[in-house]
Amino acid sequence: MNRNNYITGIILAGGKSTRMGSDKGLLPFKNKLFVEHILEVLKALVTNVIIVSDNKDYDRFNATRVSDLIKDAGPLAGIYTGLFYSKTENNLILSCDVPLIDIAILKQLIAEDDISFDVVQVQSQNKTMPLIALYKKRCKNHCLTLLESGERRLRVFVDQLKVKTIVLDKSLEKHAVNINTEHDLNVLKNEFDD
After folding, report:
1. By three-state DSSP, how is residue 111 classified?
2. Mean pLDDT across the chain, nearest whole number?
3. CATH of residue 96
4. Residue (of 36, 23, 43, 45) closest to 100 by Cα position
5. What is the pLDDT of residues 144-193, one digit of tens each?
6. pLDDT of residue 36 exceeding 90
């Protein structure tokens, strides 16, 4: 069985990016945009990619763009929207601000998949990362329940699920770094400038 046919890649690109000041997924890095780096890695593992964003600028990438079903409700709404449109049980969910994401991390998530867990997430530098994770489609209903109750915090959602956490090898930690601010972006460009 080719498991890749049973996994959807979901990129969350609907954030306000208030700390960065511009859409993080569309930031340039090494002659590509952040989202292009992520798409390249995801497409090696999945057959279908969904980008969750209201921004039509994402339409130019070879992926399905969908708008948030619940507006202004953060990444929890993005996860709900992605899972709602997904047609597969397994879904690799990534935020749009991890341009260094490595295929080895995603392969590890897939390898650790287990029907008894709702989510398989990574932990890097002692921090769990629910936006680099494999989610079961069944999480969608719990997402919606929380959103309808007014809950927006991703941690509250994840804490209520059956979660397996994989501690990343030190050599992979840099590939899980989120780029949230201008400072992060400058550090990234200085550190990885060719």
Report:
1. helix
2. 89
3. 3.90.550.10
4. 36
5. 999 999 999 999 999 999 999 999 999 998 888 888 777 777 777 777 75
6. yes
Based on the structure, what is the number of domains in the chain?
1
Q: Which range has the worst mean pLDDT, 5-9, 48-52, 120-124, 185-189?
A: 185-189
Domain of 169 in residue numbering reads as 3-191
Residue 182, φ and ψ in degrees, nearest 5: -60, -40
Q: Taken in order 103, 88, 162, 139, is the CA torsion positive or negative?
A: positive
- Hey, what are 155's tokens? 């941690």
Which DSSP string do the residues of 41-105 spell out, in sequence order?
A: HHHTT-SEEEEE-S-GGGGGSSSEEE--SSTT-HHHHHHHHHHHH--SSEEEEEETT-TT--HHH
Tell me the C-alpha distance between 11 and 55, whole Å: 13
Length of the chain: 194
Q: How far apart are CA 93 and CA 8, in angstroms?
A: 8
Q: Residue 189: its pLDDT value, please?
A: 73
Q: Which of 48, 49, 27, 19 is nearest to 100 (CA)?
A: 27
90 and 60 in contact (C-beta within 8 Å)? no
Residues 6 or more apart whose Cβ sits within 8 Å of residue 83: 10, 91, 135, 137, 139, 140, 143
